[in-house]
Amino acid sequence: MGNSKLELQLVEEEVERLERSLVGEALNPMDFDEMRKAMMRDLHTIVDVKMMGAMKLVMIFDTVANKEEAIRSPLLLNHFIDVRRWSPAEVNFNRRLWVEIVGIPAHAWCKENAIKIGSVWEKVIEMDES
Question: From which residue to which does any coiled coil extend (predicted)?
Fold first, then answer.
């Protein structure tokens, strides 16, 4: 396997949605549901709020114009230390992903091989024993 490079396909609908989005880093550790409710209450043009991991949120607006209006709003300073427009360079190293691997021949079932496969995506943190 070596240094395999994984090429990801862009999802145009997701890119369009993210172009209407702001990324915020919370002032304090938060209860996500409470933060989501506060954001939807304070900024009525927010369509959805998604957790990116750690203390980072994505706020999705109904239009780009409303996103631009929101980034100038002092209301965001009540919740975030930093708010910026989403960009393709936005990466979150705290996001975890579970991967299910099928089709491994029985004679290759072992923890070492599972770690080799998982390391294509980075570090394997935890595995089920099945």
Answer: 1-28
Calpha distance 60→46 (Å, rounded): 6
Residue 129: phi and psi, rounded to 5, are -85, 0
Amino acid of residue 84: R
Phi and psi (nearest 5°) for 26?
Answer: -65, 145
CA distance 104 to 112: 13
Q: What is the pTM of this model?
A: 0.67
Partners of residue 59 on adjacent β-strands: 22, 49
Per CATH, the number for 13-85 is 3.30.70.330
Helix (H, G, I), strand (E, B) or coil at 61: strand
Indicate the pLDDT class of residue 1, thresholds 50, 70 and 90.
Answer: very low
46 class by beta-carbon count within 10 Å (0-12 exposed, 13-18 middle, 19+ buried): buried
What does the chain come to in residues?
130
